[in-house]
Amino acid sequence: MNIAVLVKLVPDTEATIKIDADRRKIAAGEINFVLNPYDEFAVEEGLRQKEKAGGQVTVISLGGDEAAKALRNALAIGADEAIQVKSNGGLDMLGIAKALADAIRGRGFDLILAGKQAVDDDCGAVGAMVAEFLDIPHVSIVTKLDIEGDKLTATREIEGGVEVFEANLPALITAQKGLNEPRYASLKGIMASKKKVIEEVAATISTPKVEVITLTYPPQRPPGRIVGQGVDAVPELVRLLREEAKVL
Amino acid sequence: MDSGYKALDYLKLDELLTEDERMVRDLVREWVDREVIPIIGKAADEGKFPFHFIRQMAELGLYGPTLPERYGGAGLSEIAYGLIMQELERGDTGIRSFASVQSGLVMFPIFRYGTEEQRQKYLPKLASAELIGCFGLTEPNYGSDPGSMITIATKDGTGYRLNGAKMWITNGTVADLAVVWAKLDGVVRGFVVEKGLQGFSAPETKMKWSLRASVTSELVFDDVKLSADALLPEAKGLPGPLSCLTQARYGIAWGTIGAAMACFDEALSYAKQRVQFSKPIASFQLVQNKLVEMASEITKAQLLNYRLGQLKQAGKMTHQMVSLAKRNGCEQALKIARMSRDILGAAGITYEFQSGRHMVNLESVITYEGTHDIHTLAIGADLTGIEAYR
Ligand SMILES: Cc1cc2nc3c(=O)[nH]c(=O)nc-3n(C[C@H](O)[C@H](O)[C@H](O)COP(=O)(O)OP(=O)(O)OC[C@H]3O[C@@H](n4cnc5c(N)ncnc54)[C@H](O)[C@@H]3O)c2cc1C
After folding, report:
1. Domain limits, CATH 1.20.140.10, in chain B
2. How far does the CA of residue B57 sit from the closest CA of chain A (Å)?
């Protein structure tokens, strides 16, 4: 099976985010970037499907240096090939999806996987739009995926139950937590990833239809306080919740 | 997923690392965050080594990573190896000790002093943790002075007979094989002694208050019959085992700073949150002084380790340089752990926090692989040309 996985690098969820002087993007500066956690599920699913059915996994990322870093991370986990869709920004979600679809089209992928959303901007739009551009079936926020021949069965959790879809390949799936337990990279994987060449293709340019006007910080919260440890701290905590916070 | 750990990098050493080195460091850091930190306090409290870590570390590729790939290694740089040790000990000294012993004290001597058959037979299985190893040099009556050891090998037909005992041996009880140093015709030689041989036993040392999440044992050899291929032919004399210790001490120099970084991070975030006299304790000058001392010593040691790694990579590292880094790392990490423990107040004496555990662990590290004072004398001898330890 010929599998593609769309990946993106995002700020570490623990990172303290600073807004850039132009107030339209976050400042690159000191923050640590990691592979988007939902993309980790997508990469893992790609590897598992490949291990079952044979074939290969190609990871694809759009962007500049950070995209190359995302790709190396995915190669270190075990992906076979990587494509960087080179872009210096300036694209909106639709433009990103279009550029990715253009890079994917014609490469004969049977299955395309992506995270259900990137945890930085939380748009959750790119996966579905790529599927639309490619005119292939799409199931979002999937927690279980079975593939038999050229047919897939995908399960997604909905309010109060589960929904099960069937679709023919090629298809696009976006991964939700619970789909699998992602593996770690390995030292050998890291060293082997260095020997792999990342294919570069230029992103299709398009004029954005939406634009970020301004970013602002969430309202400041007063710092937390540790009142004690373990069971012994409970009475004091209850007292404070009752008398100070007045929530009990 | 994330423990919230923020590694101190005051002088932006990160910029000096290669991309692979950073990836290796981040991988081990993430593993420690996810797997080690959540359970290690309980493991230490119960005095149990978390055995499932052995296989997990093998899957990551942490055993013998600087060895060539044909022996199960990954051909990593020395700095990457150091970073692995730093991150493992940020979790716990016991976890780092396990990996240090397997890599530096078992795989290294087999690689360096073994025959091609011995390498083929043992190294890939040690890398995958199908086999666990230990290193027996110290004896009940010979610690700092291993050259006076009394464990003895005698020729017996084509093979040997081994008699004696080793003490304070990390992983001894759980090991499938022991690299044992014994005198043959008055010369220190290395032997690979496999578990299950008649006369070989390895009882565990109990009642420890340091390195509680690590197995420490005695090795007893009561007329153990060894075949001819048990001997590591290329090591003759004390420099053999000492060269292994140089490998492991290099890892300790990095590891201790990992423990110190964990303590600093814990002390800093606690000091910013803990309120006394209506202010965070971090706002008091005495507390800030402690935090600054910690950060300064960590930063100095990080630079020292980085340079030592460059020298090791270039083949220019001397064992006295390692003595300096090991000695400094242990001393400073222990001081930092104590300072952090102090900043944590009463909370610092529990396993809910890391600093107390690191503090008692580091009491072992300042003793094993050459005590602080023995390293002082080794460097002293190098500087003055006069040996003061005998
Ligand atoms: C948890 C743990 C794990 C260990 N794991 C291993 C292992 O896997 N394999 C192994 O072989 N060993 C291991 N050891 C043993 C360790 O290497 C020894 O404990 C160490 O070398 C010191 O020896 P000793 O305990 O006999 O102390 P001693 O040598 O008796 O020293 C006692 C004190 O005397 C001082 N002293 C000794 N000689 C001099 C001198 N000439 N001048 C000034 N002061 C001196 C020392 O500095 C120290 O303060 C381990 C130890 C511990 C605690």
Report:
1. 239-384
2. 9
